[in-house]
Design goal:
Blueprint lengths: L4 E6 L2 E6 L11 H14 L5 E6 L11 H7 L9 H9 L4 E5 L2 E3 L1 H8 L2 E5 L3 E3 L13 H9 L1 H10 L3 E2 H6 L5 E3 L3 H12 L17 H18 L4 H15 L2 H16 L2 H15 L18 E4 L3 H12 L4 E4 L3 H20 L5 H9 L1 E4 L10 E4 L5 H14 L5 E4 L6 H6 L7 E6 L8 E6 L5 H13 L3 E6 L6 H17 L4 H11 L5 H8 L1 H10 L13 H7 L13 E2 L5 E2 L2 H13 L9 H22 L5 H11 L9 H8 L1 H15 L7 H9 L3 H7 L5
Parallel strand pairs: 2-3, 3-4, 4-6, 5-7, 6-9, 10-11, 10-13, 11-12, 13-14, 14-15, 16-17
Antiparallel strand pairs: 1-2, 7-8, 15-16, 18-19
The structure holds 3-hydroxybutanoyl-coenzyme A (3HC) and 1,4-dihydronicotinamide adenine dinucleotide.
């Protein structure tokens, strides 16, 4: 015992309580504290059994993830968990682990070393290590199959997804679900088993299966992982480690696990995923808006416009239990919007995501309307009408007239300035951008656009609301395209240039999918509609700087009516299942157009394709960072991971550039600048950090933070 672990007694039952807020991670000091308590208990004859429990909101959420960085930089602290787990298991008095909240990672490994486990029904258990690019490193891959069976252990360790207490009971991971007070229930359980032989998990081999059955189970797990977790090291290592449990003694299995754990921990993938874990939490920290900032309670909302975005946003609000008024301009559009919402809910029911009853409940929270009646009561309005400044201003003038003071007026605009929209009202402090991504009811990203006058309360409320809505809210500044789309422009520009220079449509898409991107840059254009960008480009043509090269093939495709999936033809052609099929007609057209334009096509490597597309993102990201439109490089990463399908195991574009080395990135960008001209001028911040031998992550910590 120490500050982190306390020992108390309930007559004949000793209670060890872990108190390491907020989540009782197994930081240095915790294993030592438990070990010290066990020593005291061993000497106390009045103790017949032991309960191990977590203080505060949870049992143990795992090893302390902050320690992993110390391990990989050669400064590990503490003896690790394995010796403690053997000591618990070999103790002569039964240890009952009492679980509430989460027993994750090292927390579940600790629990499995106990002789019994009990849990409240809301508790969850899991081995989420793969989400950090590692595998369980304290015998989780050896004890879990012994308790739950090989197939369940494979599922839990490869997906990292937790299971609830009821399921854990079914699979033998826990022994009882406690109704009522957990500690009291655990103590009762302890008295029932005191004095009886205590089962050691590591000696329970009956669920490990036989070689021939297991062969099929492992090969199917490997197939699933190859398909669903393409290119990831940890899930494969988790399978190998569980296989070791079925083929070796417990001790040898533990050694095999350690070797794989260390390999994973030192991989670039794990470092990147750990960066993602902390970045996702840092994103809600805004330097000038403290945690204590007052927020506005959002009990009801309204959405203006029931089109693609408005419909999705309405569902998001209704799904979170918020009643929504949905306003349209005319009955036909309103009927269309509602029909789409209804069919989306029907699909969710069909796919088993929720029950018909839950779908009805959600749908009933939506009140369709053609007027602003009722808007005076709502706490939040999200405008999602057509993209056009005049129309937006008209709507906001109307909102100002009908909404109560203190209501938040948000715009879902993707390109227009929030300050200009705010200026059309006399309450700009309550105006903000909430930029959802399409489909709004699916995509996790929400860019929250801070206007010059937006109040801190309004920002804090929207950041908090993003969590209520199940979104990752990222605060961004008010520049054209905000952060995500501003960077996406150069990325897609390069994809088009590469096609025009001879790379081949499918080769460009393939190179980026091989890099790990979830979306193919050209196929995604077809999905969103090539005409959207074409219209925007036409509107902003007057801003183009003469002499700076622009891609043109996509515009030509639009002129031919090839808008993408909606016209069954774009960069690709589409069958009735909306599958993209390479179209020789487009290949031929592009060849003709570029020849006419005097471009000599050449062979282009996959490496050049990824460098050009990814570094185009990075170079623009560097400008955004330096101009202060994103608070931190890691915020940009979170935007790309949640809104654009950037691979999490590469940490996001800015982190990826840091891992490549900014000097190398800068040299390559400079080379592209020489070859392709002004669009590739290196961002001043990229140049400076490269010269100083620094990273974007350091910039966030030492400077930055302007939004
Ligand atoms: N180590 C260090 N810090 C942790 C942590 C961990 N395992 N888990 C959470 N934290 C920190 C968070 O960074 C956050 O810090 P902050 O307030 O300074 O930003 C704080 O605890 C609260 O976390 P959340 O904001 O995530 O709180 P929630 O209530 O939303 O979620 C949770 C709680 C479900 C436990 C979630 O934090 C979580 O999933 N944690 C990670 C669990 C995990 O991956 N465990 C495995 C670790 S690896 C391991 O155990 C290896 C072993 O096999 C040896
Ligand atoms: P949309 O064309 O699908 O829907 C717009 C709807 O607004 C139409 O149904 C129209 O009838 C309605 N409308 C027009 N004036 C109105 C008024 N005065 N009152 C009530 N309803 C009115 O457009 P979409 O795609 O949903 O876009 C909406 C906004 O979201 C735009 O600002 C757009 O830039 C932005 N956005 C679009 C994304 C997309 O992928 N479609 C992604 C992110 C943002």
């Amino acid at each position: 015992m120490n500050d982190l672990v306390q020992l108390t007694k309930e007559y004949d039952v000793a209670v060890i309580t872990i108190n390491n807020p907020p989540v009782n991670a197994l930081s240095p000091g915790v294993p030592e504290g438990i070990s010290g308590a066990l020593d005291r208990i061993a000497k106390d004859d009045s103790v017949k059994a032991v309960v191990l429990i977590g203080g505060g909101r949870t049992f143990v959420a795992g090893a302390d993830i902050k320690e992993f960085g110390k391990m990989t930089s050669g400064k590990p602290r503490g003896a690790g968990l394995l010796p403690l787990l053997l000591k618990i298991e070999d103790g002569s008095k039964p240890v009952i682990v009492a679980i509430h909240g989460t027993a994750f990672g090292g927390g579940l490994e600790l629990a499995m070393a106990g002789h019994y486990r009990v849990a409240v029904s809301s508790a969850q258990v899991g081995q989420p290590e793969v989400k950090l690019g590692i595998i369980p490193g304290a015998a989780g891959t050896q004890r879990l199959p012994r308790l739950a069976g090989v197939a369940k252990a494979l599922e839990m360790c490869t997906t990292g997804n937790p299971i609830k207490a009821e399921e854990a009971l079914k699979f033998g991971i826990i022994d009882r679900v406690i109704e009522g007070d957990l500690l009291a229930g655990a103590v009762t359980f302890a008295r029932e088993v005191a004095g009886k032989p205590a089962p050691k998990t590591r000696e329970r081999n009956e669920k490990l299966g036989n070689a021939s059955d297991n062969a099929a189970v492992f090969s199917s797990a490997r197939e699933t992982v190859a398909k669903k977790q393409r290119g990831l090291l940890a899930p494969v290592a988790a399978i190998d480690s569980i296989e070791a449990a079925t083929k070796m003694s417990f001790e040898e299995g533990c050694q095999a696990e350690q070797k794989l754990f260390v390999e994973c921990l030192f991989s670039e993938q794990s470092k990147s995923l750990i960066h993602v874990f902390f970045s996702e939490r840092e994103v809600s920290k805004i330097p000038d808006i403290p945690k204590e900032t007052a927020t506005i309670s959002i009990k009801s909302a309204a959405v203006v416009g029931a089109g693609t975005m408005g419909g999705g946003i309405t569902m998001v609000l209704a799904n979170a239990g918020i009643p929504v008024l949905l306003k349209e301009a005319d009955q036909a559009a309103l009927d269309r919007g509602l029909a789409t919402i209804k069919s989306n809910y029907a699909n969710s029911v069909k796919r088993g995501r929720f029950s018909q009853e839950a779908a009805d409940e959600r749908f009933n929270r939506i009140t369709p309307t053609l007027s602003y009646d009722g808007f005076s009561n709502v706490d939040l309005v999200i405008e999602a009408v057509f993209e056009g400044m005049a129309l937006k201003k008209e709507v906001f003038k109307e909102l100002e007239r009908v909404c109560k003071p203190g209501a938040i007026l948000a715009s879902n605009t993707s390109t227009l300035g929030i300050d200009e929209i705010a200026a059309s009202t006399s309450r700009p402090g309550f105006v903000i951008g909430t930029h959802f991504f399409s489909p709004a009811n699916v995509m996790r990203l929400l860019e929250i656009v801070r206007g010059k006058a937006t109040s801190k309360e309004v920002i804090a409320t929207c950041m908090q609301l993003s969590k209520t809505l199940g979104k990752v809210g990222v605060l961004v500044g008010n520049c054209r395209g905000f952060v995500g789309n501003r960077m996406f422009g150069p990325y897609r520009r390069e994809a088009q240039f590469l096609v025009e220079e001879g790379a081949g449509i499918e080769a460009v898409d393939k190179a980026l999918v091989d890099f790990g991107n979830a979306m193919r840059p050209l196929a995604v254009g077809d999905l969103a509609g090539l005409d959207v960008g074409w219209r925007i480009r036409k509107e902003y043509r007057h801003l183009e700087v003469p002499g700076i090269r622009q891609p043109f093939a996509e515009d030509r495709l639009c002129e031919l009516g090839r808008f993408g999936q909606k016209t069954e033809a774009g960069w690709y052609k589409y069958d009735d299942q909306r599958r993209a099929i390479p179209d020789p007609v487009v290949h031929e057209l592009v060849r003709k157009w570029v020849t006419e334009a005097g471009i000599v096509q050449r062979k282009i490597s996959a490496e050049e394709i990824t460098d050009r597309c990814i570094y185009a993102l990075v170079n623009e990201g560097a400008r955004i960072l330096e101009e202060g439109y994103a608070l931190r490089a890691s915020d940009i990463d979170i935007i790309y991971l949640n809104g654009y399908g950037f691979p999490a195991h590469r940490g996001g574009p800015m982190w990826y550039a840091d891992t490549v080395g900014l000097k190398k990135v800068f040299d390559r960008v400079s080379e592209f600048h020489r070859q392709h001209g002004e669009t590739w001028r290196p961002a001043p911040l990229l140049k400076r950090l490269a010269e100083q031998g620094k990273t974007f992550a350091q910039f966030g910590k030492e400077e930055g933070a302007a939004v």
